[in-house]
Amino acid sequence: MEIQENIVNKVASSGLITLNLEEYYHQGERVVYDLKENLFHGLILREKDFREFIKTHDWTAYSGKNVAIICSADAIVPTWAYMLLANRLKPFANEVVFGGPEVLEAVLFTRALSKIDISAYKDERVVIKGCADIEVPVSAYVEITALLTPVVKSIMYGEPCSTVPIYKRKD
Asked: What is the spatial distance between Cα 138 and Cα 163, in angstroms, rounded to a whole number?
């Protein structure tokens, strides 16, 4: 006697939409600009010298790059110095932020997620994929949850076969 079994993919027929935040990773190169290189004796920023550097430096080296501006030295750096750097970098760089690489990643993801057409997820059951080949910052998961909550039927975290419920709209 032959037994025929129909294998049903319950995940595929569940109506769940999987959102993979990894797809919103910006591929551009990341660069840290450390202002300590502009400090006199590693202690102070001399305005005249810094302004000359700003005028003469080749900013095209930052074309298309994502730049995080920091000062790793224990020095008091005036706010205008960071502003001057941002002003010179922005015409060339893809993104310019104040803070380290983790701040840069958070900003890149936030910018990318803000461009999602959230209405496409109206009344849907969404799974935010949990495993990724690249590191997705927690801030990206928080951002997508905040964006989706007003429009979706439910939000889950993980993989479609094993999810953690995050939100379910009360109908």
From this structure: 17
**Nearest to 17, CA basis, from 118, 135, 150, 110:** 118
pTM for the structure as a whole:
0.84
Contact (Cβ atoms closer than 8 angstroms) between residue 85 and residue 78: no
Specify the pLDDT at position 11.
43
- The DSSP result for 109-149, as a single string, is HHHHHTTS-GGGGTT-EEEEE---SSPPPHHHHHHHHHHHT
Which pLDDT does position 14 carry in this prediction?
59
DSSP tag of 4: -
Distance CA 169, CA 149 (A): 8
Rounded to whole angstroms, the Cα distance separating 3 from 26 reads 51
Query: Side-chain half-sphere of 87: how many Cα atoms within 13 Å?
Result: 9
Give me 85's structure tokens: 């750097």
- The sheet with strand 16-19 has its strands ordered as 16-19, 125-129, 154-159, 162-168
**How many angstroms separate the most distant Cα atoms in the chain?**
92
**What is the mean pLDDT, run by run of 10 residues, along the chain of 171 residues?**
54 75 95 96 94 97 98 95 98 98 97 96 96 91 97 94 92 78
